[in-house]
Amino acid sequence: MRSGAALIDIRGDAQIARDGTIPGALVIARNVLEWRLDPCSQHRHREAPGLGDRVILLCDEGYQSSLAAATLQQLGFTFATDVDGGFRAWREAGLPVTLPGSSA
Question: What is the pTM of this model?
Answer without folding.
Answer: 0.94
